[in-house]
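fyi for ur records
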Amino acid sequence: MMMFNEDILKTLLTDNKIDFVNCIEKYLHNLNITKYIIWDISKSIATVNVSTVNDQSLLLFADISDIGYFYQACSDFSQPINLTENTKIYQTFFLEHNDTLLMAVSICEPTNLKCKDLYEIIPYLSSKLYDIIASQNRTEIFIEYQKKIDFIKNAYDVLKFLEFETIFSKALDFFIQIFDAQAGFLQYNDTFLSIGVEKVDSQENIHINGTPLYDIVCNIHATEFFDSSIDSSKFLINNIFIIHEEKFKIKVVLFNISTSFYPDKEFSEIISHITSIAVENAINHQKELQLKLEENEMKTTAEILNSFVDREVSLSSDFCNAYGVSYPAKQAGGDFLGLHNTDNKIIVFLGDVCGKGYSAAVITVSMSTMFQFFTKLQNPIPSSFAFDLSSFIMQKNLDGRFVTLFIGIIDKKEHKMEYISLGHEPVFVYEGGDIKKLESDYMPAGIIVEEYKDSIIEIKKGTSLFIYSDGLVEYTNYDDLEKKVLMCNTDAENFIKSLYNELVIDKNNQMDDFTCIKIDIKG
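which gave:
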């Protein structure tokens, strides 16, 4: 079992570096060694911790090679090392643990001390010193960590508020606490907040080089520190720190800040950034509130616009079964679907405004109104409606907006349909396995007013019509859509619902308005 003398034992029982070094010194003194240097070592540089050598030329640091590190460990130097002209090193003991140099003790006088006498002790001393330094580092890290936590907490106290006056008040208090100032004020546009001083004091009672402090603050464009030429008849002022926040031109003035920050412009910029972030948050919050108000207003507008358009239309009678839907891609859609039934006629209308959203929806309202009047006419004519709509759009000059439309009037007695199509998708008319496409002969409404003429087609019993907007072609092509129509073996409602579920997978993110109607003639 290793036996230690009292001095070494005390050294091994220390819990801090200062006591450790003191015990090493007592150990050396008890060995009658009076000239020595105790070095702290970081990487390859040895820095003087304690020196009993009276040598004015001795530097505070040296390379480890200069104090004998590359001699064989724990052996006497064959010749003393000349550290300086007046100082020689006869022996150096290196405390090293886990390949890390921690400390060295250089003996600067001849002694009878043999390295072998310390050979077994040094590893214990090295291990103890390593633990002390590691513990000290952990403590320092913990203290720094706590400082950062406190800093973050104080910073959060500024960042969490969304009202400008509260932000500025908290920011000023934050600055005063962080810089340990005795008083201060914050200026931003017409806002002036203060702690310990008043605005009139900055205008009348505090001067720098004869200029009122308030005037200096108003005209300053950079962070500045003043500790001279300060004149105040009311306050004892040692220094004034003016912090300029660049982005929003916020000025913070602190009086008698702590010498720990004397002055720290870089740190003040960090605090300024926190303040500017808080102000920016407040600005964004106000914008977000405004956007939400506008969003709610637009939502209400969309609901009003949508009330003019039926999202589902249906008809079930001895003559026919019909079912159609119009599901907008946005909150408000640009498609209009109309179905009107009388004793003698069925009027079907499908219009598609170019574009989406509210601007398109406003035009659908006009189409809806015109369609309502059209259905009240004693002798409605499709080409007449086409003329009126196209003329109306062109007169309003709606920034290039146009409308494709199909309008058909089915005569129940004559079993024929009078219709017109303006730039609209081909309408499928099919019976059994045969299909006919009703193509458009005219430009969309709103581009040019043409000499419109109606077309007539025979509508027999067992005939079906499928009318749709170009939104469906966003999900499938014409050939596939035609095949789906021909293969249909269900009623109109089931077919439309199945088609919608098949084509529109993501109902919340439609690519385009989905509008179509299927009419099956029975009688």
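The first strand starts at residue 36 and ends at 42. thats all i got for now
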